[in-house]
């Protein structure tokens, strides 16, 4: 029987009287890759920020491993987040960026603990194929390399859930394809639950165990990619998801042929 990692119930959010989420409920299974797919302004990033603890919802609850975390601080949630803009420290090297969050913890101030942090950071940098860039600062790296640093920096904290906020929207096609494989490899190797925010239909269908389709503050359909294709919930899913998916695939095939 599958274990429920996250249980979200009747999530509501309002900004200046405008409803951003309207009683959204869903579960996330342990070890699952769930994409939240929808156009700009549909509420998908609001969901992510509530789950990670950066926003307090107007209503509803978030439960993780059976514990209500709705009012718990981000640091106490055991989650990591990878942002679209990488959010790296520009004055730090790759190594310094990756080890920073662990290094500054009070319990890691002793020399022995600091060495353990350094070894863990070096291992992750190697896993992310960044060893030759270890002493470089972010400005010297490509977008894909910076995103790999951001992922390594998140992994060093051992989160059991990793959130991705449109992490590939600024990358070229070749880099996106490579990074997709990297993220799926990480999921398999670390057995991490992943929640992935995207507006890109092809990306969601290529990576996800299940896809959650959003429209104007509402959850329209949540199911496997295969079931969404064979049984779209309504005309919106047909038009926004399936029609656009075909266009994305056609564009990608054109790129591959070139």
UniProtKB/TrEMBL annotation:
GO terms for cellular component: membrane. The keyword Phosphoprotein does not apply. GO terms for molecular function: ABC-type ferric iron transporter activity; ATP binding; ATP hydrolysis activity. Pfam families: ABC_tran. InterPro entries: AAA+_ATPase (IPR003593), ABC_SmlMolc_Importer (IPR050093), ABC_transporter-like_ATP-bd (IPR003439), ABC_transporter-like_CS (IPR017871), ABC_transpr_FbpC (IPR015853), P-loop_NTPase (IPR027417). The keyword Ribosomal protein does not apply. GO terms for biological process: quaternary ammonium group transport. Keywords: ATP-binding, Cell membrane, Ion transport, Iron, Iron transport, Membrane, Nucleotide-binding, Transport. Residues 6-241 form the ABC transporter domain. Gene3D superfamilies: P-loop containing nucleotide triphosphate hydrolases. It comes from the Bacteria. SUPFAM superfamilies: P-loop containing nucleoside triphosphate hydrolases (SSF52540). This is ABC transporter. It comes from Cloacibacillus porcorum.
């Amino acid at each position: 029987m599958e274990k429920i990692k996250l249980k979200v119930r009747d999530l509501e959010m309002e900004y200046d009287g405008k409803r951003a989420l309207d009683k959204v409920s869903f579960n996330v299974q342990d070890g699952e890759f769930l994409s939240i797919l929808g156009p700009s302004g549909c509420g998908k990033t609001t969901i992510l920020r509530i789950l990670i603890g950066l926003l307090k919802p107007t209503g509803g609850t978030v439960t993780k491993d059976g514990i209500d975390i709705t009012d718990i601080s981000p640091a106490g949630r055991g989650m990591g987040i990878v942002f679209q803009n990488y959010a790296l420290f520009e004055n730090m090297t790759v190594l310094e960026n990756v080890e920073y969050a662990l290094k500054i913890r009070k319990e890691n101030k002793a020399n022995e603990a600091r060495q353990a942090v350094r070894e863990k950071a070096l291992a992750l940098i190697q896993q992310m194929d960044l060893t030759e860039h270890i002493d470089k600062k972010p400005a010297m790296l490509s977008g894909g390399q910076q995103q790999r640093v951001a992922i390594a920096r998140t992994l060093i904290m051992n989160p059991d859930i990793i959130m991705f906020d449109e992490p590939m929207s600024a990358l070229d096609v070749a880099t996106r394809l490579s990074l997709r494989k990297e993220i799926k490899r990480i999921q398999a190797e670390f057995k991490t639950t992943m929640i992935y925010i995207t507006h890109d239909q092809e990306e969601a269908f290529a990576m996800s165990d299940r896809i959650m389709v959003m429209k104007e503050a509402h959850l329209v359909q949540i199911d496997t990619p295969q079931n969404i294709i064979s049984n779209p919930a309504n005309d919106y899913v047909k038009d926004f998801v399936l029609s656009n998916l075909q266009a994305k695939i056609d564009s990608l095939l054109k790129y591959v042929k070139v």
